[in-house]
Design goal:
By secondary structure, this protein is of the alpha/beta class. It has eleven helices and 18 strands. Strands 3, 5, 6, 9, 10, 17 and 18 form a seven-stranded mixed beta sheet that branches. A six-stranded parallel beta sheet has the order 13-12-11-14-15-16, sandwiched between helices. The two termini are 15 Å apart.
């Protein structure tokens, strides 16, 4: 028996209750969670913007220790420290064959499985985005875990499973920021803070952070932002003013709103690049006219999971962390228990803080 946060239906509060986990089956492992980050994608699942089979235990960004191993799992052992990978690649689909593992067609097939049951009623539960990290323990496919980088506390390593891979990948893989370029990041949450730090690591000459909250300026500056703007109707104009009238070379949108995507695009120079990381709803329509697309010569690109290959990128991120270039702890503005997730969602909606982190005892 373990405690977990369950979403029973869209637009209903998470319910923290006891669940029963089975022993790991063939190809599975059981993990005791050390920490789990509260990501905007989890919020998108609760409000129906993204859909998974319900009822489900949410949470997809976490790290912990292997406590049991199923048959035919030769690369993991009890006591191993691991980072959860919510989007494992199958290695066989068209995207995987092209090397674009972040677009794997079968990455989320495990979310439809029944992986546990509620203790009280015996209700079948699904594992959210494959890994069900909002729980003291979870059972996952062995392909959903990666070795935690040595020497990095698991409570920090939890952020590697989504926020950092996404923010780092948006800068290094999607936008391919070059040394000396100007970068503007919209949204100073967990992913935005990772993107700002990653832009600094990439050698960006100017990093402009934009958010609706004036209170986030200190967080952005600590991460490496050289300028800070409070979002308004004139933001694109202000970005151009800060960049000699040209606009930024690169914009990274971490909000997922049509208006913000449009502003991010407008704030880049002629020939600039905009990477959209934020997840918006179907009702968020972004419009452009044909003439401006031709005239500005800008690029607008979607970005899934930072276009990252976790197996390739985690060791690179670990080296940045050990060298002091990437500070995971500074991204966390709140440590909470399982029953604090609802309040963390409220803070996210209100634009408060960076990453909230569930700490398990």
């Amino acid at each position: 028996m373990t405690r977990a946060a369950i979403l029973r239906a869209p637009n209903t509060p998470l319910e923290v209750t006891d669940i029963d986990l089975p022993a790991p089956a063939l190809g599975q492992v059981r993990i005791r969670l050390a920490a789990a980050g509260v990501c905007h994608s989890d919020l998108s699942l609760t409000n129906g913007t993204m859909r998974v089979p319900l009822p489900a235990v949410l949470g997809h960004e976490g790290a912990g220790t292997v406590t049991a191993v199923g048959e035919e799992v030769g690369h993991l052992a009890v006591g191993d420290e691991v980072v959860l990978n919510w989007a494992p690649s199958c290695g066989k689909c068209h995207a995987c064959e092209l090397g674009e593992v972040w677009l794997c067609a079968d990455a989320l097939t495990g979310a439809g499985d029944v992986y546990a049951r509620t203790t009280a009623e015996g209700t079948d539960l699904h594992p959210g985005l494959n890994v069900a990290a909002f729980a003291e323990e979870t059972v996952v496919a062995a392909k959903c875990v990666l070795p935690a980088p040595p020497g990095i506390p698991l409570t920090d390593a939890a952020l590697l499973g989504c926020a950092v891979l996404t923010g780092y990948g948006a800068i290094h893989h999607s936008a391919e920021v070059r040394e000396g370029e100007t970068v503007v990041v919209y949204g100073v949450g967990g992913v935005g803070l990772a993107a700002i730090q990653s832009a600094r690591i990439a050698g960006a000459g100017q990093i402009i952070a934009v958010d609706v909250s004036p209170a986030k300026e200190e967080l952005a500056t600590a991460a490496g932002a050289t300028d800070y703007l409070v979002a308004s109707e004139t933001t694109a104009r202000e970005v151009r003013k800060l960049t000699g009238g040209h606009g930024a070379d690169v914009a990274v949108e971490c909000v997922g709103r049509a208006a913000t995507i449009r502003t991010a695009w407008e704030s880049t120079r002629r020939g600039g690049r905009t990477t959209v990381v934020g997840i918006g709803g179907k009702d968020q329509q972004v419009t452009f006219n044909a003439l401006e697309i031709f005239h500005w010569g800008r690029t607008l690109t979607g970005c899934v999971y930072g276009n990252s290959d976790p197996a390739r990128d985690l060791p690179v991120l670990a080296e940045h962390i050990r060298a002091g270039r990437l500070d995971l702890a500074s991204m966390v503005t709140e440590h909470i228990a399982l029953d604090g997730i609802a309040a963390a969602f409220d803070n996210m909606l209100a634009g408060k803080g960076g990453r909230a982190l569930v700490i398990f005892q």
